[in-house]
Model the fold of this input.
Amino acid sequence: MILCDGMGSGEVAREESRTCANLLLSLLSHNIQVSTAINIINSMLLWTFSGSVAAIDLCLINLDDGSSKIYKCGGAGSYAKIKNEVTSIASPTLPAGSFSNSDTEVFSVDSEKGSMLVMVSDGIISSENSQKSWIKEMIDKYDGNEPEELSQMILSRAKEIASSPPDDLTVMAAYIG
Done:
């Protein structure tokens, strides 16, 4: 799963996000190491001189054993539900385009069959208006195995909380079955 979130909202941010995600996917499909691929995107954004930045969240799932690695370069927290326990995965890293050296954090997740992984954009997180994470609570209470259903539930709740969201809203989920 790749979630790239460009600075701002609307069509310009959407296009920056799409470009970063497509470039990352292309680099990875040519067997470029993840850290090198993210550094290439960072360099590209730094050299545009437009002030563009993009948070990059990448989740790679090993199809043999179900284990996962989450790469975070800026961006909102991610979540892993394993054996009915939800863990928040957050990183203080800066988004690509805002640093000169690699600022990507890698998290190994002991996911397995029955696990659910969730990534959200900062627009979803900014709709939290209390100290208690409603997203983590919603994932915890969800007892299904349909990532689309869970994503729609989180998105609907975020729209409900912030009737006119100031930022783009993105939710991605994967079920390891």
